[in-house]
From TrEMBL:
The lineage of its organism: Bacteria, Bacillati, Actinomycetota, Actinomycetes, Mycobacteriales. Signal peptide: none annotated. This is ABC-type polar-amino-acid transporter. Belongs to the ABC transporter superfamily. SMART domains: AAA. It is an enzyme of class 7 (translocase). One of its GO terms (molecular function) is ATPase-coupled polar amino acid-transporter activity. One of its GO terms (cellular component) is plasma membrane. It is a peripheral membrane protein. It is found in: Cell membrane. It catalyses: a polar amino acid(out) + ATP + H2O = a polar amino acid(in) + ADP + phosphate + H(+). Keywords: Amino-acid transport, ATP-binding, Cell membrane, Membrane, Nucleotide-binding, Transport. The keyword Nucleus does not apply. CDD domains: ABC_HisP_GlnQ.
Length: 260
């Protein structure tokens, strides 16, 4: 989480040597006739935790997916740590390594053990040696509180545990940015907090995060900033306290009226 008063922090205003960790400039995207992202302009300083809110279909998932180039954009420019997103090829694999993503569905490899799931990408993409990849994977599993499950298979774990593995797997690539797209939406209520707690600790450690979530407690506790989207546009961009206590737009008022 960033502290706005800390002018010496990397990425703080005035530090011209440090580019924003994520920047989108005039980004537009269509799915056929559907204009799904409309002129998105966004700069996320390093260490900032951005909560993305908005009604279903407003473009939240598409926004996340464009940032690690799972979806190409029509026009505009996206940079991660100052580097424009490459179109294809090897640059793309490196970019995906820099931008970790955690989805609603955990997407673990069912036929691999938990520790193998976490070791895989570093070995394939970063060419990390097996022993080193295993040691690092165990460290990360410990960090998300499931080192004791390392040799089990995904189906033997609860949803909350699987989602924590998915977070560890993304962290194994030492990403600069973590994108979370409704990471707790598929979980039984009693498992939501164990995942949010891991995300809060990541935020405290200074990870730059973009989090699509309906967990308003988390948004207030961990968020530095709220982006409210509607119809492919960023309608409000403010701090959580202001957003929740004094939303400006009718769309946001309507949205909050339905979820709070
Ligand atoms: P959100 O995550 O806010 O619910 P999405 O980004 O998933 O919204 O979707 C925004 C709009 O784009 C929706 O109308 C959705 O149906 C449409 N959409 C999303 N993905 C695709 C796709 N691959 N092809 C066509 N339309 C899509
Ligand atoms: Mg979505």
């Amino acid at each position: 989480m960033t502290d706005a008063t800390d002018a010496d922090a990397p990425g703080a205003a005035g530090d011209t040597a440090t580019p924003p960790m994520i920047s989108l400039r005039a980004v537009d995207k269509h799915f056929g006739a559907l204009h799904v992202l409309r002129d998105i302009n966004l700069e996320v300083p390093r260490g900032q935790v951005v909560i993305v809110l908005g009604p279903s279909g407003s473009g939240k998932s598409t926004l996340c997916r464009t940032i690690n180039r799972l979806e190409p954009i029509d026009t505009g420019e996206i940079r991660v740590d100052g580097v424009p997103l490459p179109a294809e090829g090897r640059g793309l694999a490196a970019l995906r390594a820099d931008v970790g993503m955690v989805f609603q569905s955990f997407n673990l490899f069912a036929h691999k053990t938990i520790v193998e799931n976490v070791m895989l990408a570093p070995m394939k993409v970063r060419k990390t040696k097996k022993d080193e990849a295993r040691a690092r994977a165990m460290e990360l599993l410990k960090r998300v509180g499931i080192a004791d499950q390392a040799d089990k298979y995904p189906a033997q774990l609860s949803g909350g545990q699987q989602q924590r593995v998915a977070i560890a797997r993304a962290l194994a690539m030492s990403p600069k940015v973590m994108l979370f797209d409704e990471p707790t939406s598929a979980l039984d209520p009693e498992m939501v907090n164990e995942v949010l707690d891991v995300m809060v600790s990541l935020a405290k450690e200074g990870m730059t995060m973009l989090v699509v979530t309906h967990e308003m407690g988390f948004a207030r506790r961990a968020g530095d900033r709220v982006l409210f989207m509607a119809d492919g546009q960023v309608v409000e961009d403010t701090d959580p306290e202001t957003f929740f206590s004094a939303p400006e737009s009718d769309r946001a008022k309507d949205f909050l009226g339905k979820i709070l």
